[in-house]
TrEMBL record:
It comes from the Bacteria. NCBIfam families: aminoacetone oxidase family FAD-binding enzyme. Keywords: FAD, Flavoprotein. Its cofactor is FAD. Gene3D superfamilies: FAD/NAD(P)-binding domain, HI0933 insert domain-like, Translation factors. The keyword Ligase does not apply. This is Membrane protein. Residues 5-391 form the RsdA/BaiN/AoA(So)-like Rossmann fold-like domain. It comes from Alishewanella longhuensis. Residues 188-338 form the RsdA/BaiN/AoA(So)-like insert domain.
């Protein structure tokens, strides 16, 4: 039987970061992962460039049953700490939009940095490990694989959520939590495209590929970003963001032209170009294919602008700024970036990430019921929760 101080299950963002910190404290640390390489999600994140943090990250950007839980970790290991590490490694990066920091070259830069940090601190990593059993006796955890039983004082569960099952995602972290008596809150796919009702599919799939800036609203939460029509439904950053707040059966309210006061734009156009057709005027502020679709749906009737009454303008303003979609569902874990829900934060210490009633067992990263917005927030949670646990495990 192999003896370790710390075993971390999961060589993703949170697990690697925790292992590095633990090993720096002189703890004999092993990371186990079921995949062939470390940091697989990091490698494919941000379109291959990894949106590794957000300069505006704050607890307000996270969803959790207990919205205070993430405060401690996020304030003790901040985005500025991670940025300093990235700078120390000379990794070139840029702000894309809304504080989102991406690598200039490749997400591999971040994984290489983590590998070097692991090597420097003396973290051992074992890949392609299928863990069949975990038990606890006499203050020690036994982690069993077909080849070997390993024993450790501290067990850190960093197995992530259920998104992208073909990248090795499993429910193992949730199962372990339940096995040791921790409550797991219901999980669902987050940061995920929404799908059409069959009737909407027939109408809108023709304009798949059309993208426009919108505000998307559900349950009194609003995100201003781009929306994309796809064959399956609605996507783009505005939709991924709002998907975290959308529940089956809810409507989505979309402002199709949030950057324009539509009524005053149309009144202005009416004065300047009275003979112009309404659809031509609308195509100045909306994608042409969408305008044609709205005409086909009789959201407006095409006519010369001079024929428009103030009441028509008002009605059209209302229709375009509060367009209602009723999605059928989400694309699910196949394309979701994150898993909402997970290990109940009431079971954990926010200071250490240790289970309150299970000494030596820690939960970090996405397996915990803390989910960030789109834009580097989820990695920041992984770094911060991993760093915190690494100080104590
Ligand atoms: C396509 C995509 C793009 C994303 N882009 C971004 C982005 O740009 N910015 C951002 O902030 N967030 C992004 N995210 C979210 C981010 O990747 C996750 O929130 C983050 O990786 C969570 O880190 P984690 O360490 O908790 O889990 P993970 O990174 O999922 O790591 C968990 C590890 O545990 C392993 N594992 C699972 N089950 C077992 C088991 N039974 N035995 C052993 N090992 C196991 C997995 O193979 C994996 O290596 C993206 C997600 C996806 C899917």
């Amino acid at each position: 039987m192999q003896q370790w101080d710390v075993i971390v299950i999961g060589a993703g963002a949170a697990g690697l970061f925790c292992a590095i910190e633990a090993a720096k404290r002189g703890r004999k640390t092993l990371v186990l992962d079921n995949g062939k390489r470390i940091g697989r999600k990091i490698l494919m994140s941000g379109g291959g460039r990894c949106n590794f943090t957000n300069i505006y990250a704050s607890p307000a950007n996270y969803l959790s049953e207990n919205r205070h839980f993430c405060k401690s970790a996020l304030s003790r290991y901040t985005q500025w700490d991670f940025i300093a590490l990235v700078q120390q490694y000379g990794i070139a990066y840029h702000e894309k939009t809304l504080g989102q920091l991406f690598c200039d070259n490749s997400a591999k830069d971040i994984v290489d940095m983590l590998q070097q940090e692991c090597d420097k601190a003396g973290v051992q990593i074992a890949l392609q490990q299928e863990i069949s059993n975990v038990t606890f006796a006499d203050g020690q955890y036994q982690v069993v694989t077909p080849q070997l039983t390993r024993q450790c004082q501290s067990l850190v569960v960093a197995c992530g959520g259920l998104s992208l099952p073909n990248l090795g995602a499993t429910a193992f972290g949730f199962q372990l939590a339940e096995q040791f008596g921790l409550k797991v809150l219901p999980v669902r796919a987050g940061l995920v495209p929404l799908t059409w009702q069959p009737s909407d599919k027939a109408v809108f799939e023709e304009i798949s590929g059309v993208s426009l800036p919108v505000t998307a609203e559900a349950n009194n939460v609003v995100f201003p970003e781009d929306m994309l029509f796809t064959h399956r439904g609605l996507s783009g950053p505005a939709i991924l963001q709002i998907s975290n707040y959308w529940q089956p059966g809810d409507e989505l309210t979309i402002n199709l032209a949030p950057e324009q006061a539509i009524a005053s734009f149309l009144s202005e156009q009416q004065q300047q170009h009275p003979a112009q057709e309404l659809k031509t005027a609308l195509a100045k502020i909306l994608p042409k294919r969408l305008v044609e679709k709205l005409l086909e749906l009789q959201v407006f009737q095409n006519q010369p602008l001079k024929a428009l009454h103030a009441k028509n303008i008002e009605r059209l303003d209302q229709a375009l700024s509060c367009y209602i979609f009723k999605p059928n569902g989400t694309e699910g874990y196949r394309t979701a970036e994150v898993t909402l829900g997970g290990v109940d934060t009431n079971e954990l210490s926010s200071k250490t990430m240790e289970a309150k009633n299970q000494p030596g067992m820690y939960f970090i990263g996405e397996v915990v019921d803390v989910t960030g917005w789109l834009g580097g927030y989820n990695f920041q949670w992984a770094w911060a929760s991993g760093w915190v646990a690494g100080q104590y495990c």
